[in-house]
Amino acid sequence: MTMQKGSNVPVAAASVRVELSWQAGPGVPDVDASALLLAGGKVRSDGDFVFYNQPRHASGAVRHEGKQPQGAGVTDALSADLGGVEGEIERIVIAASADGGAFGQVPGLCVRVLDAAGGAELARFDSADATVETAYVLGELYRRQGAWKFRAVGQGYGSGLAGLATDFGISVDEPAEPVRAPAQTAPSAPAPAPHAPPAAPPAAPPAAPPPPREPVRLTKVTLTKEAPSVSLTKQGGTSGTMRVNLNWEVQKQFSGWGRKLGKAMAMHSDLDLDLCALFELADGRKGVIQALGNAYGSLHQPPFIHLDGDDRTGANASGENLTINLDHAKDLRRVLIFVTIYEGARSFASVNGTVTLQPQHGAPVEFHLDECTVSSNVCALALITNESGDLVVHREARYLVTPRGSSPQRTVDAAYGWGMQWTPGRK
């Protein structure tokens, strides 16, 4: 159902998927979807802002699912379990921000509300009148008489995502005010003490105020061929963990089904992709993290890298995730993240992908993979190197051709000079 600005429609679904889509191309800014959960027209706290740096609401009801290439376009998705939204939340604002330009440069911008269970389209609003805006409210889900509705809004902001978020009560990169000590005065002569009244029981000490909440960070990094690397230290990613996700869509093969690692979508049960990593530690030890041979690694002991499992059917809603312990960055010399086709296809031809590295403390790093034009069953995604204590992420996006009689792992090893000994494995 295509909507006009200001119109509304009922949403007869328990859970919905909200997709923002646009046409990609030279000079087109990147677009990011976000959601704000409002009570009384404002967020209750910064935790009610769901976006790429804060992808899951504490209630679990609203999530940022991430980008997915679709032919010549791109989709960024949010999911909402409407039955699980807290009762005091009256509206969920669906917004977008443009990175590197204004929405007047973004062709084909639209928002669709889909039934998460069956995929049926419940509402669609195409935005056609944006000009200089760098943030945009496309629509909102709201409660009315115990049911949910969707309204097409189409309201823009010239102050970007920071201005939009601040308008709804989010604290954005605002340093806390320093606590000033009381002014010092010269001591005066003590006054005569009056007759003391009977002693009262001591009052309970006041409760300590909660620590100030750190403002929301809006920073993100997009790697390109022209700017293919970034320092995690300079982006604030120096501690905690870093999660690696790969969004993958099959465009022509496998009956149009898609494969998504890290944020699962509809999947072809015959296509089994494996997210893997080669590692070299500071002490010279080398190895591989992969489902093949059950080499899942460990997060809190060497190699400080962990693969959470092997999703062979797409039934796992969280897909496959690779996590790196940044608290042990000094113990890592280099890490190469790659993906292989285990079964279901011979090549990555006709697929597109987006890689996202999400540090726990710091800006997410993302980049798009190039189209595969060779017969490749292994793709090197990103190389992380320790450069004088600073972890640097290098965009690889490199499809490799496995020689006859070799394996994808051996092929990656030879291309990057890891020098390991390989034996056949299974899972």
Automatic annotation (TrEMBL):
Pfam family, any one: TerD
Region feature Disordered, mapped onto this chain: 179-215
Compositionally biased residues, Pro residues: 189-213
Lineage top rank: taxon: Bacteria
Domain TerD: 1-168
UniProt similarity note: Belongs to the CAPAB/TerDEXZ family.
Protein name: TerD domain-containing protein
Organism, as annotated: Streptomyces daqingensis
